[in-house]
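Entry 14. Structure prediction run on the chain below.
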Amino acid sequence: MLAWHAVLFAQERFPRPEFESGYVYPEHQMPADRAPIWEYIDLAVLIGALSVAAWLALKVRSRQGLLWLSVFSLAYFGFFREGCICSVGSVQNVALALFNEGYSIPLTALLFFMIPLIFALLFGRVFCAGVCPLGAIQELVGFRTVKLPKVVESVMISVPFIYLGISVLSAATESQFLICRYDPFVGIFRLDAPYTMVIFGGLLLVAGIFINRPYCRYLCPYGVLLNIFSRFSNKHLTITPAECINCRLCEDVCPYDAILPSDVASPVADPEKERKRFLIYILLVPFFAAAGAIIFGTLSPVFTGLNSDVMLAREIRAEVESGIPAVSLAALGFKEAGTTEAELFEKEIKIHERFRKGSVWMGLFLGISFGLSLVSLSTRTRRTEYVPHKGKCYSCGKCFQYCPVHLNKISNDKA
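Output returned:
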């Protein structure tokens, strides 16, 4: 888009030809803007859907109700709203506003970002339960659950953290909105997308038949924030409405491996060893943070390739060095715009500096996240019953259908 704008600007530098045939330039047609009232209607629907999801997951405990809510969210936020603006993509708007004074984030985008996080802090990940259209379309195709090996799972769950860091870096440096560009389902919602993204979305849906919600679990950057906020939730979905009988049925049925088992029968660990391990992991956190800053700071020249001006500068520099003319639209637009090579290379240096600083902060975030993950593994609490992991649980309610205590309560209520 930037390259095409440069071409159009270059064309306007030259006078228009005079026609003697009475030719009249057509009026430039712009698509009609969406009425502002619809943005507030979307916010009202979002708050209403989140409230219903919290009620169904925590109070009514209805898996079927959450599925019907997923259908509604897919229809409204997905196909009717065409997946924009969504809470997942709003991460980029917030990053752009935080690090660029010239950008003022729309109020609706800010609220779409904040409201699901507030609900996660209060009730857990009810946004994932039946409100997010990206999660809904995957939830509705998950029929046969296959659990991945623990090693694979532990490696894959780190990808969303890296994706979040790179997406924030790209948006903060005014390069591009990666989350929106590589959204696998927005093309399906709009019935219009590059064939590569259609294939990507289709493959995720096929994989989702066996591996529930592959995008949510192994890619979604907004899920990282929901995971963190949900860990501190005041109220959260519970597997059983009464005392757990430790039948283990919920552990087997959960497709996200989000059930923490009872450890009453497990041998009690040596408290002294646990304290030493905890202190060692705490001391390692600054080391991981420094290592992340160094590694990703070193990789900053690679990340600058996300910026179109940097790519243009590299193309022009290659033309100067090799003598082979650059023929891309961006290069042609640059030549016709009248900007000097010195100005372009100076801008490239400034962009490199922004990426270098941003990459260091991204490395710090990832290093600290990794270190705190190890600390959480060393922190153990005694559990007398099976409970959901507050961060990993999607509040989907699948465990309801297999809990004998829950089913017995339903039978008694009907009787």
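Residues 270-379 form one domain.
Filed with the rest of this week's runs.
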